[in-house]
């Protein structure tokens, strides 16, 4: 499947025009190394998201299952929204974010790890469905590498805003405006994909893309104020982070090889953050909690 092509023509990873496998730049869009060292055909076989969707779904399911196992008898099996919920300690162990981990415990790397954790069966199910819907679409608009960058940065900005709000807004009498003591889930990153899609619509003049993204985003924002336990600050921070990253990456410019490298780094450091959270729990946090 991942056999390297060394001769002949391949399809440019950015614009889809035929180029020589060893061409330094694409004559149509100017992308450097358009054949991706001969691996472009193999990577294209993974789809427009380069396998990101199955990777995220698979990793989130594994981490969710491990968090349930670590919870033991403390797994919650109550109502619909809390059915099969990992324990608070288990989520903290695997890298939950929020005021408590980030500011009280100094676990700043949880801004990366929390996107891969989920608080219930319904939570992970809905988020994985949204990722399956949005990631390939944004990957087509920006390129798969830039889509992964947007997804990762949006998760960080979402949980950062939620953590700061949890530190500074806890005095507010309205619960949905207080910020989060602890928070998990891929929804901050999902809102980042929506923010990037909306910027794409503004940048390119595509009203169809922008209006479709708004049609998704507005009901989800409203839903967050109706259903208890939704982290609205994470959603807002993720949306803003995705919009700003879309602006910085500029969808009208071709995706470059360094975007692909940056995407790999984003995924690697996110997984390292989960592993480090587990290690840090047993080395340091278990004795503090």
Note down, in words, how this protein is organized.
Helix content is 60%, strand content 4%. It is mostly helical and 289 residues long. It folds into two domains: 9-44, no CATH class; 52-287, Up-down Bundle (Rhomboid-like fold). The strands form two sheets. Strands 1-2 form a two-stranded antiparallel sheet. A hairpin with a 6-residue loop joins strand 1 and strand 2. Helix 2 packs antiparallel against helix 6, helix 7 (144-168) packs parallel to helix 11 and helix 8 packs antiparallel against helix 9 (207-226). The model has no long low-confidence stretch (mean pLDDT 87).
Short synopsis of the structure:
The protein has eleven helices and four strands.
What's the SSE blueprint?
Layout: E1 9-11, E2 18-20, H1 40-44, H2 52-71, E3 76-77, E4 83-85, H3 88-94, H4 99-104, H5 110-113, H6 121-142, H7 144-168, H8 187-204, H9 207-226, H10 232-249, H11 257-283
Antiparallel strand pairs: 1-2, 3-4
Helix pairs in contact: 2-3, 2-6, 6-7, 6-8, 7-8, 7-10, 7-11, 8-9, 8-10
Which CATH architecture of the largest domain is right? Up-down Bundle
Main beta sheet, described? 2 strands, antiparallel
CATH superfamily grouping of the largest domain: Rhomboid-like
Q: State the share of residues found in helices, binned by percent.
A: 55-70%
Shape: globular
Sheet/helix structural class: mainly alpha
Kindly report the spatial arrangement of strands forming the biggest sheet: 1-2
Order of helices and strands: EEHHEEHHHHHHHHH
- Low-pLDDT runs of 5+ residues are none
By CATH reckoning, the class of the largest domain would read: Mainly Alpha
Number of strands: 4
Whole-number mean pLDDT = 87
Tally of structural domains: 2
Strand residue content: under 5%
CATH topology of the largest domain: Rhomboid-like fold
